[in-house]
Specification:
The complex is a heterodimer of chains A (311) and B (298). With 311 residues, chain A is mainly alpha-helical. Chain A is built from 14 helices and no strands. In chain A, 81% of the residues lie in helices and 0% in strands. Chain B contains 13 helices and two strands. Classes of the chains: A mainly alpha (311), B mainly alpha (298).
Chain lengths: 311, 298
């Protein structure tokens, strides 16, 4: 009996000490995670002189010069491109993956299993592998469309609307990016939504069908609203990938269609790196992902761990 | 009646899959087939697709004796070994240390995933600034404790060390969070039973928890390994593979072969090899952890 009480006391003490250690570790880790990001944000408010001098690391007179310069230097255009590409591919991914996930989770059809496994495998395609054929295909599609217009008398003679301009619009790098980001994001989104669909009892749809709804109506009126929490998680991941992607954007875009991650690298090649401007742009790129994290950290962690822990 | 209903259902299923199939075909399958075809051809940048020249297996022969490819495979494997071991050890230690739920954990977890969420390009830029030889904070603080400045990104060994450190900063939280979720999902009956049987902390950790985490550990390692082979943005910004080829991972080597050396055909050949590696890795991953297996309807 005495031994019992002693043990209880001991474990109580240990709990206090380990809780303190736990918090200490958490604070150190939080500092390590945050410090580089904070340094970036701080540097974006520094003048080049402050950045170059070694005695003003934390104390300096903040300036908005970097930001105003960045906005003069086409940042607005890059921002617009990034928003268009990221939002379009997110919406497209959600629509397409929602439909596919519904078929895979609820309907029986030949080829179901191969398709499911195909989506898992295709998830691993490295962007560097895609960059080469995409670069060539995109150039050739433009040539192909121009040839097509040349060979079609009706189109060739048409002046308003100009078919060549229209063709150029079609091969706009942004449209390509939307397509490729959607393709890259689909597997994860499909797979995530299947998991969500499985938690929705099939009786709800069966009841709707008994009531005379068509399969399409069931999908749009019943399933889609029920899938909303899953869609939110899928949207976060899709948006993040599309917003941050660099390599394909580098290959596919030109000076008018560049997205932010590509635009920022232009500042790197200039003579004498202007760190203040780069960090200002970096800060602006990082704002949407940071906001998403603070708003939906729980969903993000759930999405990240789903693959490894549940499987 | 029954079979006509079934046919109807099949038709509907294909209609629902059609958009996904179109996107996959246009966005992934056609480009991949093009890569495969191009890997048997020679095509330099700027020439149209029609001017490719079929050269049979020449690219493949060249690849297997190309010291550049061998170096980049070596760099990738070495990089993978360093970051995986470091991230696994640190991530696991942290997960075990912080396993017990405490107040405020959610806020800390939010902060930990920030390095994962920010754009890899921004990560590369931040660390390039921090590690800068003249104005970087790393040298600034090293000087303060009496260590002279290092040219972190200008010397092969240090540059490799720099990309490893950056990767550890970015990805340890991922491993930590997955392992933490895994630890917290362990069946409490088993842990309770072993505690009643008098197992101490070491026995609990190494004889009970870690063996039960085995498959999660394996999946995490594979996911990271696949990512090491895929990702190149951070290294692209940080060192662009240099100095020399000391930080040139395979996917960056492919990019530079295609767009710096402008050998699109030969770059495709190396890309095919990378795809092959990815295929093997993802098959292994699928055997270990099949997300469709929960319900055996696939």
């Amino acid at each position: 009996m005495a031994a019992m009480t002693k043990r209880v006391d001991l474990s109580g003490m240990r709990t206090d000490r380990s809780t303190f250690l736990q918090y200490l570790a958490l604070f150190v880790l939080a500092f390590i995670s945050l410090a580089p990001i904070i340094v970036m944000i701080m540097t974006s408010f520094k003048t080049q002189v402050d950045i170059m001098s070694s005695d003003s690391m934390w104390i300096f007179q903040p300036t908005m010069d970097n930001y105003s310069h960045v906005f003069e230097a086409k940042f607005g255009l890059f921002l617009q491109n990034s928003i268009v590409v990221a939002l379009s591919s997110t919406v497209l991914s959600l629509l397409v993956s929602g439909m596919a996930a519904y078929a895979l989770a609820r309907l029986e059809f030949p080829g179901k299993s191969p398709f499911a496994y195909f989506t898992l495998i295709i998830r691993m395609v490295p962007p560097a592998v895609l960059a080469i054929p995409i670069f060539i295909l995109w150039l050739n599609w433009e040539l192909f469309l121009f040839d097509l217009i040349d060979a079609t008398p009706f189109l060739y003679e048409l002046e308003n609307p100009d078919p060549y301009l229209f063709a150029e619009g079609l091969v706009d790098g942004r449209i390509g990016l939307i397509l490729f980001y959607t393709a890259l994001n689909l597997p994860f989104a499909i797979w995530l939504l299947i998991g969500f669909l499985r938690q929705i009892p099939a009786e709800i749809e069966e009841a709707a069908i008994v009531d005379g709804a068509s399969q399409w109506q069931v999908f749009t009126r019943v399933i889609f609203p029920l899938m909303r929490p899953g869609m939110a998680v899928a949207a976060i991941f899709t948006f993040r990938i599309s917003w941050n992607e660099f390599l394909l954007a580098l290959v596919l875009t030109d000076r008018n269609t560049r997205t932010l991650p590509v635009g920022i690298t232009l500042f790197l090649t200039e003579q004498g790196v202007q760190w203040g401007r780069i960090m200002a742009m970096g800060t602006l790129i990082v704002i949407p992902p940071l906001l998403l994290t603070f708003v939906a950290a729980r969903q993000i962690i759930a999405g990240m761990t789903a693959g490894a822990v549940k499987g | 009646m029954h079979s006509s209903l079934r046919i109807r259902q099949i038709r509907i299923a294909y209609l629902f899959l059609l958009p996904a199939i179109i996107v996959f075909v246009l966005g992934l399958i056609v480009p991949l087939i093009n890569t495969l075809e191009l890997s048997f051809n020679e095509l330099s940048m700027g020439s149209p697709w029609d001017e490719r020249e079929f050269i049979n297996l020449e690219n493949y022969q060249r690849m297997f004796s190309d010291p550049g490819v061998q170096t980049s495979v070596g760099v990738t494997l070495r990089f993978a070994a360093f970051v995986l071991i470091a991230e696994l050890v640190i991530g696991l230690a942290l997960a075990l240390l912080l396993e017990k739920p405490i107040r405020g954990a959610a806020i800390f977890r939010t902060i930990f995933i920030l390095p994962l969420m920010v754009s890899p390009v921004a990560v590369g830029l931040i660390w390039r600034y921090l590690l800068d030889g003249r104005i970087g904070l790393v040298n600034f603080y090293l000087n303060q404790i009496g260590i002279p400045s290092q040219t972190w990104l200008g010397e092969p060994g240090l540059a490799f060390f720099s990309i490893v450190i950056t990767d550890i900063w970015q990805w340890t939280p991922f491993i930590f969070i997955i392992l933490l979720a895994g630890l917290q999902a362990l069946p409490s009956e088993v842990l309770e039973a072993s505690r009643i049987d008098g197992a101490n902390w070491w026995q609990m950790t190494f004889l009970i928890k870690l063996p039960m985490l085995r498959s999660i550990l394996l999946v995490t390692v594979l996911m990271r390994l696949i990512d090491v082979f895929r990702a190149l943005e951070v290294i692209f910004i940080l060192t662009f593979g240099g100095p020399g080829r000391s930080t040139q991972v395979l996917s960056l080597h492919i990019y530079k072969t295609a767009f710096t050396s402008q050998a699109l055909g030969y770059a495709s050949t190396i890309a095919v090899m990378l795809m092959f590696i990815m295929l093997i890795l993802s098959m292994v991953l699928m055997v270990i952890s099949n997300p469709f297996k929960e319900k055996s309807d696939f």
